[in-house]
Amino acid sequence: MSRVRRIHKELEDVKKDKEAGIILELVSENDLSHLKGKFIGPRDTPYEGGLFIVDIQIPPEYPFKPPLMKFDTKIYHPNISSVTGAICLDILKSDSGNSSSGGGHGAWTPILTLKSSLISLQSLLQSPEPNDPQDAQVASVFLKDRNEFEETARYWTKIYAPNKDNILLGTIELKTVQLFEDMGFNKFKIVEVLKKLKIDKVYSGDEETKIKVIEELLK
């Protein structure tokens, strides 16, 4: 598959996948080598609810070499530079070490995709690796004082990653989404179902609507 066809296919796959919670967009319709990825910070982390934007440069050798990714959104994390947005993640490194993630051997293979890479970044926010840092100062705080780290990361999320446009929720109330998340359902499927049913809010005593949503989620 040619590089151009591969990128077009990946864009279509992301659009069709309503559960992944990943947005992938071209910066310019005429340039397939420059994209932006977006995702929401994972729940139960200092990044929860924040909107994170990742700059993606596609090299001519893609998919045999990894995309060059860096965070546009400032973020306080051991594996992401708080200054440049550079990322330390094995799958963004090729065997030659030529990538945005620094030197060393990497885990990138052509089987991986832009979507899987962005999902891995989202997972990295849940599970920092301070012993293999991109930002040594942040990693030091993480190891020495977890409370200070989380407080700072939460503050940076509020300041630098506000989800003002409710990119996923639209008019849907966040508490309603969390109600079904607590039952074990996927956040992005919940949003899709609520939009389909044209429900913005489920009141605590409204069992009929709650059951209606659950039945749709179980399909």
TrEMBL record:
A Pfam family reported for this protein in Swiss-Prot or TrEMBL: UQ_con
Assigned keywords, A-Z: ATP-binding, Nucleotide-binding, Transferase, Ubl conjugation pathway
Single GO term (MF): proteasome binding
Enzyme nomenclature, EC number: 2.3.2.23
SUPFAM superfamilies xref list: UBA-like, UBC-like
Domain called UBC core: residue spans: 2-162
Catalytic-site annotation from UniProt: C88
PROSITE patterns (alphabetical): UBC_1, UBC_2
Enzyme class: transferase
GO BP term (any one): vesicle organization
Family, similarity comment: Belongs to the ubiquitin-conjugating enzyme family.
PANTHER family from the UniProt entry: UBIQUITIN-CONJUGATING ENZYME E2 (PTHR24068)
Name the UniProt record assigns to this protein: Ubiquitin-conjugating enzyme E2 1
Organism, as annotated: Pachysolen tannophilus NRRL Y-2460
